[in-house]
Write a structure and sequence with these properties.
about 425 residues, alpha/beta, four-stranded mixed sheet, 8 strands, about 60% helix
Amino acid sequence: MPPLYLIKDSEVAISEPQISICSSHAANMREAFERVRKWWLDQHEANVDPLAISWQYTLLVDELIQDLAKDSDEVAVMALGGYGRREMGPHSDIDLLFIYEGDDQEYIEACTSKVMYPLWDAGLEAGGATRSIADCEGIMRKDIKAWTSMLDARLVVGDEELAGNLHELMDRWVERTNDRRSFVVRKRNEHIARRNRFADSTYLLQPDLKEGEGGLRDFHTAVWCARATYPGKEFDTLFENSGMSEKHAKEYLASVRFLWRLRHALHLISNKRQDRLTEQYQDDAARILGFGGSSTRTPAEELSQTYYRHASLIRRRTEATLERVNVKWRGRFARLCDKFFTKEVEQGAIVRCGKILSISASAVDRDPMLTLRAFVLAKRYGAMPDADSKELLEAAAPLVDESMRNSSDAKELWTEMFSNPKGLGRVIRTMHECRCL
């Protein structure tokens, strides 16, 4: 899957690096990659779309792998993960999968060695797994990370029939509802565990752009879960399929682009794979991204503020997508609860199972004060707004003007909200997420 599902503008300019990477000697390869990184820096400073740069870089890596494995006709050399999606930074890993049939281990080892050793000798971060189709099917049952990486598998060179067999295996997975449900549940659990491991906050002084909250892995988790839930849909409308508005989807992808641009800058500055925005790189990253600072903020502070804004948006949109996905996969008991334990607390506002608050768009149109009152209802009934209601409230936030905020009705709402501290923090955080605070 190419990253062009993020590039909806067909007029995006992509400048080819005009560099050939010779695989005959490690020193020549290292020199060529240094020229590639100089081209990458020039494109970056010219404000070229970061995913367009990644696309061209991946084509160069493809050519190198094709040259190294040009006589491996009985093996399919597949690109995995970010390399498979054509989403790479200057120092990203080159993850490969060698698919084979038969038991000629000597031939298989020779094929993998002639590809992997030159990459390592050139100082590239490369990893290679060797599997049969049966191995791939078995590992899907045991290792969620390996399963996920194979979702993005792409043939680079070699046996097209073997590559087709792997894609047929993934297609059969898509056809099995239980397998897709299992995948979504396991990715959700992995997502929660990763959040706990990385401090569960977007507001860290030295955030991890890839694995941290609001990072690129959040976005990828939303993509993978949406793909499993809505198979066969176009990637260009992946999030709209789940219920996200087109406006919010565009904002989501714009924030993802910013993180990719910042990640590329960190790789170029540090000359290594660097995904954490540590203090030592913040000034240089701010400069290379064009932050000039102001009388009240340094360039690094401007960069941090912009990063937090984008990371926060990615976190919110990811959580909304995962919530919608989870609703899609609800079991029979949850659906029965919705049917029998739903009550209308006022016109246009219902509470489901005592936990979820749903607001209708028509009710907000009739009564803009519901934009504020919704949070009082959330606190009163201990039921937080669902993803659709949050999106609606965020879109309606501009309706709340000064006269409405200073009205007697608004004062009564605030008085009720702050009269009891129970659940107040959660409601205030939700108001902040919906841009209604």
